[in-house]
Amino acid sequence: MNQSFPLNRFFHVPSHLPEGAGAKELILNHFPTSSKPSKKPFSAEELLPIGKEIVKKLKDEIDENKYHAFFKDHFSLLSLKAGTIEFAVSTEYIKNVVEANYIAPLHRAIESVLGQKYDVAFSVITQKGLTPKTDPKPPTKGSAKEASFSIDLVPTREDKFNSINSKVLNYPNDLKFRFVIDPKKTFDNFIVGPSNNMACASALAVAKNPGALYPCLYLYSPSGLGKTHLLHAVANTIKNLHPTLVICITTARDFMTEMIDSIQKKSLSTFRKKYSEDIDVLMIDDIHDLKNKEGTQNEFFHIFNRLHNKGKQLIFTSDKHPKDINGIEERIKTRLTWGLVLDIQTPDLETRLAILKNKTNEEDIFLHPDILSLIATKVKSNIRDLEGSLIRLIAYANVFGVDIDMETAKEQLNLCETDEQKSLTLDSITSAVSEHFKIPVPDIKSKSRLKAITEARHTAMFLSHSLIQPAPTYVEIGKFFGGRDHTSVMHAIEKIRRVSKRDQKFSQNLLEIESSL
Q: How many beta carbons lie within 10 A of that of residue 178, not counting itself?
């Protein structure tokens, strides 16, 4: 430990002890930390070596690149009081990262240096005032002047935006779950729509009766459409209904890493026993990550066979249908298709709106319905991006202490004027429907009752009511489509809504038309 470390602040030093370096060892060996320490406030000169020792211990525990990114020149000891130790960090972003990922090693470093546990607090301080500065001039004789801090506790605008970005980047973080079931992901907060109703219903059936109805369930979709949420929802339901069953939820990458570790530690038999004999429900997320991993695929093949033969429940997710995954052995593709294989489509507008409304309820915040419609209309790629947009707006409101209006939403979500709804009109939507169904616009607006024309007309009415903001009245829509009365329009819209909920292919047609606008 550094010679300047203020040991006398933590240990009661008897006056009869000898001075010099040997005294420190004598104190440490014979006078425990329970001896009364000094209660005077720590000066900056005393805090500096304590902070250096803590950071030094911390450096030994974490990755060097992470140390340079989040601690070196960005992190220092600010104050030390009874039971609480406070650190200064240079930005809100670094504060969030440290709190989310490095609290445990920080606690260990503190206890190693100071000999006891402390509550940890952080203050965001500009780079200028981050490091405690001691007075360069020695105090005059008899002076009790202590070193002082020169800090600015007001976060800059850049700090605030870094804070917003960190909240968005850290949400959600599905890769962190490993073998832990997320209690927040349940069937109750999974929004069901035409794009995912079959997948949700099948997952719920599996959760209620594992290994019986669908012993092997395979869900696939592009990233961010709810596959991982369903995995955890199944796990939570099984835990509640069948508490004696052993559940393993992992990713293909973690499965592979665990197998490699077992080989290195010469405990492969333990690995095989765990997966082949100890588990009742095996869930592997992103199974496509096993591609081109021949050794791991071989172990997986035998584990699959043993569990399937015992009637255990198997659930897998991927971004592709099994037959479309390159680098996976045919024998494994065959087994992955033994059970029920279902895809999840991109959610339609109504489902996206429901997801946003549910999220605002969870976060206990209010956003104007027009803002939610703006997000739902513009963000179509996946649920993660959809909720990420909402999280950005919530973070902006919290950090800057303002209400979110339409202009702020457009600015924060990078929606310029050309992205607005001005192109969505009765004419433009009808033209898009005409192109999709290959039916001329005059026929759609005519009095014809042919089935194909009626379906196209009803679709155009439904999309006009759903997409145009502000929505035209039923009377206006009826007048545009051949002078029909408002009850006919209401009937058409409700009919399309019902069909889209039960017919996944039709729901996908709606989404394709919407995406073309």
A: 12
